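dumping these here so i dont lose them again. two proteins, back to back, each one seq then C-alpha coordinates. dont judge the mess
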Amino acid sequence: MKLPGRNIAAVIGFLLVLTTEASVGDSSLSEFCSETKECLLYTPVCQTEEYEVRNLSSTKWVTTEETSRIMEMATYTAFRRLFKYITGANENGANIEMTSPVIIKSKTNKGWFESCTYTMSFLLPSEHQLNPPKPSDSQVSITEMPGMNVYVKSYGGWMMSYRARDKESELMDSLESVGAMYKKDFSYAVGYDSPMKMFNRHNEVWFVAEGTPVCPATPA
Protein backbone atom coordinates (compact mmCIF):
# COMPACT_ATOMS: atom_id res chain seq x y z
CA MET A 1 0.00 0.00 0.00
CA LYS A 2 1.31 3.40 -1.00
CA LEU A 3 1.26 6.26 1.47
CA PRO A 4 -0.31 9.53 0.28
CA GLY A 5 2.24 12.27 -0.46
CA ARG A 6 1.22 14.23 2.63
CA ASN A 7 1.84 11.21 4.88
CA ILE A 8 5.23 10.56 3.30
CA ALA A 9 6.22 14.18 3.95
CA ALA A 10 5.07 13.84 7.55
CA VAL A 11 7.16 10.69 8.04
CA ILE A 12 10.24 12.35 6.54
CA GLY A 13 9.71 15.39 8.75
CA PHE A 14 9.41 13.15 11.81
CA LEU A 15 12.66 11.36 10.94
CA LEU A 16 14.41 14.68 10.45
CA VAL A 17 13.26 15.83 13.88
CA LEU A 18 14.58 12.61 15.43
CA THR A 19 17.95 13.16 13.73
CA THR A 20 18.09 16.76 14.95
CA GLU A 21 17.23 15.75 18.49
CA ALA A 22 20.02 13.19 18.38
CA SER A 23 22.64 15.82 17.46
CA VAL A 24 21.42 18.92 19.33
CA GLY A 25 19.90 18.23 22.71
CA ASP A 26 19.56 18.84 26.42
CA SER A 27 22.82 20.05 27.95
CA SER A 28 22.31 17.71 30.90
CA LEU A 29 23.33 14.93 28.51
CA SER A 30 26.79 16.47 28.12
CA GLU A 31 29.43 16.93 30.80
CA PHE A 32 30.79 20.06 29.10
CA CYS A 33 27.71 22.28 28.70
CA SER A 34 26.82 23.96 31.97
CA GLU A 35 25.64 27.40 30.80
CA THR A 36 23.26 26.70 27.91
CA LYS A 37 20.02 24.74 27.61
CA GLU A 38 21.14 22.81 24.55
CA CYS A 39 24.45 21.41 23.41
CA LEU A 40 26.05 19.56 20.52
CA LEU A 41 25.67 15.85 21.26
CA TYR A 42 27.86 13.11 19.84
CA THR A 43 28.52 9.39 19.83
CA PRO A 44 31.86 8.29 21.33
CA VAL A 45 33.86 6.09 18.94
CA CYS A 46 37.13 5.38 20.76
CA GLN A 47 39.64 7.00 23.07
CA THR A 48 43.35 6.98 23.92
CA GLU A 49 45.34 8.80 26.59
CA GLU A 50 46.08 11.57 24.07
CA TYR A 51 42.79 12.07 22.23
CA GLU A 52 39.30 10.76 21.59
CA VAL A 53 37.21 10.20 18.48
CA ARG A 54 33.59 11.34 18.25
CA ASN A 55 30.95 10.82 15.61
CA LEU A 56 28.94 13.96 14.90
CA SER A 57 25.61 14.05 13.08
CA SER A 58 24.86 16.65 10.42
CA THR A 59 23.92 19.99 12.02
CA LYS A 60 23.11 23.56 11.00
CA TRP A 61 25.07 26.54 12.29
CA VAL A 62 25.04 30.31 11.86
CA THR A 63 28.42 31.37 10.55
CA THR A 64 30.59 34.38 9.77
CA GLU A 65 34.20 35.00 8.72
CA GLU A 66 36.72 37.56 9.90
CA THR A 67 40.32 38.07 8.79
CA SER A 68 43.01 39.28 11.17
CA ARG A 69 46.60 38.73 12.24
CA ILE A 70 45.42 38.01 15.78
CA MET A 71 42.80 35.37 16.58
CA GLU A 72 41.36 37.27 19.55
CA MET A 73 40.63 40.35 17.41
CA ALA A 74 38.94 38.29 14.70
CA THR A 75 36.84 36.28 17.13
CA TYR A 76 35.73 39.38 19.05
CA THR A 77 34.28 40.91 15.88
CA ALA A 78 32.83 37.61 14.65
CA PHE A 79 31.20 36.84 17.99
CA ARG A 80 29.45 40.23 18.11
CA ARG A 81 28.14 39.72 14.58
CA LEU A 82 26.71 36.29 15.39
CA PHE A 83 25.32 37.49 18.71
CA LYS A 84 23.33 40.15 16.86
CA TYR A 85 21.83 37.38 14.72
CA ILE A 86 20.57 35.39 17.71
CA THR A 87 19.25 38.53 19.40
CA GLY A 88 17.00 39.59 16.53
CA ALA A 89 19.08 40.47 13.44
CA ASN A 90 17.24 37.92 11.31
CA GLU A 91 14.23 37.92 8.98
CA ASN A 92 11.81 36.99 11.77
CA GLY A 93 13.28 39.26 14.41
CA ALA A 94 13.53 36.10 16.49
CA ASN A 95 15.48 35.77 19.71
CA ILE A 96 17.35 32.47 19.49
CA GLU A 97 18.74 30.57 22.45
CA MET A 98 22.52 30.43 22.76
CA THR A 99 23.95 26.90 22.60
CA SER A 100 27.31 25.24 23.12
CA PRO A 101 29.91 24.98 21.76
CA VAL A 102 31.18 27.89 19.66
CA ILE A 103 33.57 26.65 16.97
CA ILE A 104 36.31 28.51 15.11
CA LYS A 105 37.73 27.03 11.92
CA SER A 106 41.14 28.18 10.69
CA LYS A 107 44.08 26.88 8.69
CA THR A 108 46.78 24.91 10.47
CA ASN A 109 50.46 25.81 10.93
CA LYS A 110 49.79 29.54 10.98
CA GLY A 111 52.82 31.77 11.39
CA TRP A 112 52.89 34.25 14.26
CA PHE A 113 51.05 37.43 13.22
CA GLU A 114 50.19 35.88 9.86
CA SER A 115 46.92 37.19 8.45
CA CYS A 116 44.33 34.43 8.61
CA THR A 117 40.60 34.01 8.02
CA TYR A 118 38.76 32.70 11.07
CA THR A 119 35.34 31.14 10.51
CA MET A 120 33.20 31.25 13.65
CA SER A 121 29.93 29.38 14.05
CA PHE A 122 27.16 29.19 16.65
CA LEU A 123 25.22 25.93 16.80
CA LEU A 124 21.54 26.50 16.05
CA PRO A 125 19.19 25.07 18.72
CA SER A 126 16.96 22.13 17.85
CA GLU A 127 13.95 24.45 17.40
CA HIS A 128 15.69 26.15 14.46
CA GLN A 129 17.65 23.26 12.93
CA LEU A 130 15.08 22.49 10.23
CA ASN A 131 14.17 26.03 9.17
CA PRO A 132 16.47 28.70 10.65
CA PRO A 133 15.57 32.35 10.05
CA LYS A 134 17.60 34.07 7.34
CA PRO A 135 20.27 36.47 8.69
CA SER A 136 19.77 40.19 8.12
CA ASP A 137 23.53 40.79 7.81
CA SER A 138 25.06 39.75 4.47
CA GLN A 139 28.24 38.76 6.33
CA VAL A 140 26.31 36.09 8.24
CA SER A 141 25.07 32.84 6.70
CA ILE A 142 23.44 29.54 7.62
CA THR A 143 25.80 26.61 7.07
CA GLU A 144 25.42 22.87 7.39
CA MET A 145 28.18 20.74 8.86
CA PRO A 146 28.02 17.22 7.45
CA GLY A 147 28.09 14.14 9.62
CA MET A 148 31.69 13.18 10.35
CA ASN A 149 34.19 11.70 12.78
CA VAL A 150 36.51 14.10 14.57
CA TYR A 151 39.71 13.63 16.54
CA VAL A 152 39.40 15.65 19.75
CA LYS A 153 41.92 16.92 22.30
CA SER A 154 40.47 18.61 25.40
CA TYR A 155 42.07 21.20 27.65
CA GLY A 156 41.06 23.62 30.38
CA GLY A 157 41.60 27.29 31.08
CA TRP A 158 41.14 30.08 28.56
CA MET A 159 41.22 29.52 24.80
CA MET A 160 43.93 32.03 23.94
CA SER A 161 45.58 31.89 20.51
CA TYR A 162 48.90 30.55 21.78
CA ARG A 163 47.19 27.77 23.76
CA ALA A 164 44.95 26.79 20.86
CA ARG A 165 48.02 26.68 18.63
CA ASP A 166 49.95 24.50 21.11
CA LYS A 167 47.06 22.04 21.52
CA GLU A 168 46.60 21.85 17.76
CA SER A 169 50.29 20.95 17.41
CA GLU A 170 50.06 18.36 20.20
CA LEU A 171 47.08 16.66 18.57
CA MET A 172 48.77 16.65 15.17
CA ASP A 173 51.86 15.02 16.70
CA SER A 174 49.69 12.35 18.37
CA LEU A 175 47.85 11.59 15.12
CA GLU A 176 51.03 11.48 13.05
CA SER A 177 52.63 9.08 15.53
CA VAL A 178 49.88 6.47 14.97
CA GLY A 179 49.50 7.02 11.23
CA ALA A 180 45.99 8.45 11.48
CA MET A 181 44.44 9.92 8.35
CA TYR A 182 42.82 13.31 8.80
CA LYS A 183 42.27 16.65 7.06
CA LYS A 184 45.50 18.47 7.84
CA ASP A 185 44.90 21.86 6.28
CA PHE A 186 42.44 23.14 8.89
CA SER A 187 41.35 22.57 12.48
CA TYR A 188 38.59 23.71 14.79
CA ALA A 189 39.12 25.57 18.06
CA VAL A 190 36.11 24.75 20.21
CA GLY A 191 34.90 26.63 23.29
CA TYR A 192 32.08 25.67 25.64
CA ASP A 193 32.10 28.49 28.21
CA SER A 194 31.19 32.16 28.40
CA PRO A 195 33.76 34.75 29.54
CA MET A 196 31.87 34.96 32.85
CA LYS A 197 32.82 31.42 33.82
CA MET A 198 36.07 31.58 35.75
CA PHE A 199 36.73 27.97 36.75
CA ASN A 200 36.41 24.46 35.29
CA ARG A 201 36.47 25.76 31.74
CA HIS A 202 36.47 23.31 28.84
CA ASN A 203 38.00 23.77 25.39
CA GLU A 204 38.89 21.44 22.55
CA VAL A 205 40.73 21.21 19.25
CA TRP A 206 39.23 19.09 16.46
CA PHE A 207 40.60 17.53 13.30
CA VAL A 208 38.24 15.87 10.83
CA ALA A 209 39.04 12.17 10.46
CA GLU A 210 39.44 10.54 7.06
CA GLY A 211 38.76 6.85 6.64
CA THR A 212 38.54 4.57 9.67
CA PRO A 213 39.50 6.36 12.92
CA VAL A 214 42.66 5.14 14.65
CA CYS A 215 42.73 4.55 18.41
CA PRO A 216 45.63 2.24 19.36
CA ALA A 217 45.06 0.28 22.54
CA THR A 218 47.06 1.46 25.56
CA PRO A 219 49.67 -1.16 26.54
CA ALA A 220 48.80 -2.99 29.76
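---- next one ----
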Amino acid sequence: MCNMTLEETSGENSTERMDSVTKALEEVLSSALPQGCITVGVYEAAKSLNVDPDNVVLCLLATDEEQVEDVALQIHFTLIQAFCCENDINILRVSNMRRLAEILGGVKPGGEPMDLHCVLVTNPQSTTWKDPALSKVNRFCRDSRILDQWVPIINLPD
Protein backbone atom coordinates (compact mmCIF):
# COMPACT_ATOMS: atom_id res chain seq x y z
CA MET A 1 0.00 0.00 0.00
CA CYS A 2 1.32 3.41 -0.95
CA ASN A 3 1.56 5.78 2.02
CA MET A 4 3.18 8.64 0.15
CA THR A 5 1.16 11.73 -0.66
CA LEU A 6 0.86 13.01 -4.20
CA GLU A 7 3.06 15.87 -3.05
CA GLU A 8 5.87 13.41 -2.29
CA THR A 9 5.59 11.46 -5.53
CA SER A 10 5.01 14.13 -8.16
CA GLY A 11 8.47 15.65 -8.46
CA GLU A 12 9.98 19.11 -8.38
CA ASN A 13 6.84 21.22 -8.89
CA SER A 14 4.95 19.42 -6.13
CA THR A 15 4.89 22.35 -3.67
CA GLU A 16 3.54 24.72 -6.30
CA ARG A 17 0.98 22.15 -7.39
CA MET A 18 -0.21 21.51 -3.83
CA ASP A 19 -0.46 25.27 -3.22
CA SER A 20 -2.46 25.61 -6.42
CA VAL A 21 -4.85 22.78 -5.48
CA THR A 22 -5.24 24.14 -1.94
CA LYS A 23 -6.10 27.57 -3.33
CA ALA A 24 -8.55 25.97 -5.79
CA LEU A 25 -10.22 24.06 -2.93
CA GLU A 26 -10.61 27.29 -0.95
CA GLU A 27 -12.14 28.94 -4.06
CA VAL A 28 -14.57 26.03 -4.53
CA LEU A 29 -15.74 26.25 -0.92
CA SER A 30 -15.98 30.04 -0.98
CA SER A 31 -18.05 30.05 -4.17
CA ALA A 32 -20.26 27.09 -3.19
CA LEU A 33 -21.20 28.53 0.21
CA PRO A 34 -23.31 31.51 -0.96
CA GLN A 35 -25.00 29.27 -3.55
CA GLY A 36 -26.20 26.92 -0.81
CA CYS A 37 -24.12 24.07 -2.25
CA ILE A 38 -22.43 23.01 1.00
CA THR A 39 -23.62 20.29 3.36
CA VAL A 40 -21.76 20.02 6.67
CA GLY A 41 -21.78 17.28 9.27
CA VAL A 42 -21.37 13.53 9.14
CA TYR A 43 -25.08 12.83 9.69
CA GLU A 44 -26.28 15.56 7.30
CA ALA A 45 -23.82 14.38 4.65
CA ALA A 46 -25.00 10.77 4.99
CA LYS A 47 -28.61 11.90 4.52
CA SER A 48 -27.68 13.97 1.46
CA LEU A 49 -25.67 11.12 -0.06
CA ASN A 50 -28.60 8.77 0.46
CA VAL A 51 -31.13 11.12 -1.17
CA ASP A 52 -29.17 12.43 -4.17
CA PRO A 53 -25.61 11.09 -4.61
CA ASP A 54 -25.52 12.20 -8.27
CA ASN A 55 -25.69 15.83 -7.18
CA VAL A 56 -22.54 15.60 -4.99
CA VAL A 57 -19.39 16.81 -6.75
CA LEU A 58 -16.87 16.61 -3.88
CA CYS A 59 -16.60 15.11 -0.39
CA LEU A 60 -14.19 16.48 2.23
CA LEU A 61 -13.30 14.47 5.32
CA ALA A 62 -11.64 16.69 7.90
CA THR A 63 -9.78 15.97 11.12
CA ASP A 64 -7.19 17.51 13.33
CA GLU A 65 -4.36 15.52 14.90
CA GLU A 66 -6.21 14.89 18.17
CA GLN A 67 -9.18 13.35 16.30
CA VAL A 68 -7.19 10.82 14.29
CA GLU A 69 -7.58 8.28 17.11
CA ASP A 70 -11.40 8.69 17.30
CA VAL A 71 -12.56 5.19 16.30
CA ALA A 72 -16.21 6.15 15.78
CA LEU A 73 -15.22 9.01 13.47
CA GLN A 74 -12.88 6.73 11.50
CA ILE A 75 -15.71 4.19 11.05
CA HIS A 76 -17.96 6.97 9.71
CA PHE A 77 -15.17 8.06 7.36
CA THR A 78 -14.67 4.51 6.09
CA LEU A 79 -18.37 4.15 5.30
CA ILE A 80 -18.56 7.55 3.61
CA GLN A 81 -15.41 6.82 1.59
CA ALA A 82 -16.82 3.49 0.43
CA PHE A 83 -20.08 5.11 -0.62
CA CYS A 84 -18.27 7.92 -2.45
CA CYS A 85 -16.01 5.46 -4.29
CA GLU A 86 -19.02 3.37 -5.29
CA ASN A 87 -20.76 6.49 -6.65
CA ASP A 88 -17.71 8.10 -8.34
CA ILE A 89 -17.59 11.06 -5.95
CA ASN A 90 -14.16 12.63 -5.47
CA ILE A 91 -12.92 12.59 -1.87
CA LEU A 92 -10.26 14.64 -0.10
CA ARG A 93 -8.91 14.41 3.44
CA VAL A 94 -8.42 17.88 4.86
CA SER A 95 -6.33 18.84 7.83
CA ASN A 96 -6.58 22.14 9.74
CA MET A 97 -10.23 22.25 10.73
CA ARG A 98 -9.73 25.75 12.13
CA ARG A 99 -8.98 27.07 8.64
CA LEU A 100 -11.89 25.07 7.20
CA ALA A 101 -14.16 26.69 9.80
CA GLU A 102 -12.88 30.14 8.76
CA ILE A 103 -13.68 29.45 5.10
CA LEU A 104 -17.15 28.07 5.85
CA GLY A 105 -18.16 30.50 8.57
CA GLY A 106 -17.66 28.04 11.42
CA VAL A 107 -20.98 28.35 13.26
CA LYS A 108 -24.61 27.54 12.58
CA PRO A 109 -27.27 30.20 13.02
CA GLY A 110 -27.69 30.50 16.77
CA GLY A 111 -23.96 30.26 17.50
CA GLU A 112 -23.62 26.46 17.65
CA PRO A 113 -20.34 25.22 16.09
CA MET A 114 -20.68 23.21 12.89
CA ASP A 115 -19.58 19.58 12.58
CA LEU A 116 -16.98 20.03 9.86
CA HIS A 117 -15.76 16.42 9.88
CA CYS A 118 -17.61 15.83 6.61
CA VAL A 119 -18.36 18.52 4.04
CA LEU A 120 -20.14 17.86 0.75
CA VAL A 121 -20.10 20.20 -2.20
CA THR A 122 -23.13 19.80 -4.44
CA ASN A 123 -24.22 21.17 -7.81
CA PRO A 124 -26.51 24.19 -7.70
CA GLN A 125 -30.10 23.08 -8.30
CA SER A 126 -30.48 25.10 -11.51
CA THR A 127 -27.41 24.06 -13.50
CA THR A 128 -24.43 21.78 -13.67
CA TRP A 129 -21.53 23.61 -12.06
CA LYS A 130 -18.61 24.34 -14.38
CA ASP A 131 -16.04 25.95 -12.11
CA PRO A 132 -12.35 26.01 -13.13
CA ALA A 133 -11.31 25.65 -9.48
CA LEU A 134 -13.54 22.59 -9.07
CA SER A 135 -12.06 21.14 -12.26
CA LYS A 136 -8.56 21.59 -10.82
CA VAL A 137 -9.53 19.85 -7.56
CA ASN A 138 -11.22 17.01 -9.45
CA ARG A 139 -8.15 16.59 -11.70
CA PHE A 140 -5.97 16.40 -8.57
CA CYS A 141 -8.23 13.66 -7.17
CA ARG A 142 -8.11 11.74 -10.46
CA ASP A 143 -4.31 12.05 -10.68
CA SER A 144 -4.02 10.83 -7.09
CA ARG A 145 -6.11 7.75 -7.87
CA ILE A 146 -3.75 6.95 -10.75
CA LEU A 147 -0.99 6.83 -8.11
CA ASP A 148 -3.16 4.53 -5.92
CA GLN A 149 -3.87 7.29 -3.44
CA TRP A 150 -7.65 7.04 -3.31
CA VAL A 151 -8.15 9.70 -0.64
CA PRO A 152 -5.49 12.39 -1.07
CA ILE A 153 -4.68 14.74 1.79
CA ILE A 154 -4.81 18.54 1.56
CA ASN A 155 -3.20 20.58 4.32
CA LEU A 156 -5.02 23.90 4.50
CA PRO A 157 -2.58 26.66 5.46
CA ASP A 158 -3.22 28.87 8.49
